[in-house]
Amino acid sequence: MIWFDASLESPADDGLLQRCIAAMLNISSENVDVVHSISDIKDALATCVVEAHSAESYSQLITLYLPEALPRPDVPEAAARLARTLDRSLLLANDETANPYSFIRVSNTGQCSVVLVDPDELDENDRYVIRGPGRENDGAST
């Protein structure tokens, strides 16, 4: 079952993702699979499906899958731990609003802020280009 999606500020390799997700969940890294297609999901305790669209900021999308039986930490808390261990910021969908261009930016120190992404870039180019608060420090391209 999908737990949450995040777009990473800069790409992370499979080994780093595996170690950081294991640390976030307090499980062994052998229990985390990192795959590049949903069809490759097997029966690991945790699975991370990685999509990379380009080398641009926030272009690597990860989707975390956990079985129902595994305890699920609060998403913002878990995302903050993941951002700190990966040492890069990430974007989460902002479920507090109906605006599809509003995201929660979790910094590499675990701080959260609401940001808006450029609607044209997202709709036309599948790119998360941040507009508004947090932009000056996020390294996103324009």
Describe this structure in words.
The chain is of the alpha+beta class. It has three helices and eight strands; from the N terminus they run E-H-E-E-E-H-E-E-E-H-E. The protein has helices at 14-25, 75-86, 119-125; strands at 2-8, 32-35, 46-52, 60-65, 90-93, 102-106, 112-117, 130-131. It has an eight-stranded mixed β-sheet. Residues 134-142 have low confidence and may be disordered.
Task: Set out the fold topology.
Blueprint: E1 2-8, H1 14-25, E2 32-35, E3 46-52, E4 60-65, H2 75-86, E5 90-93, E6 102-106, E7 112-117, H3 119-125, E8 130-131
Parallel strand pairs: 2-3
Antiparallel strand pairs: 1-4, 1-5, 3-4, 5-6, 6-7, 7-8
Pick out its properties:
142 residues; alpha+beta; 8-stranded mixed β-sheet; 3 helices; 8 strands; globular; disordered C terminus
Mean pLDDT: 90
Q: What amount of the residues lies in strands? A: 25-35%
Helix-strand pattern: EHEEEHEEEHE
The number of helical segments is 3
- What's the alpha carbon Rg, rounded to whole Å? 14 Å
Helix content: 10-25%
What oligomeric state do these chains adopt?
Answer: single chain
How far is it from the N-terminal to the C-terminal residue, by CA?
34 Å
SS class? alpha+beta
Biggest sheet descriptor: 8 strands, mixed
Lateral arrangement of strands in the main beta sheet = 2-3-4-1-5-6-7-8
Taken from the alpha-carbon principal axes, the silhouette is: globular
Ranges where pLDDT stays below 50 over 5 or more residues in a row are: 134-142
The number of E-state strands comes to 8
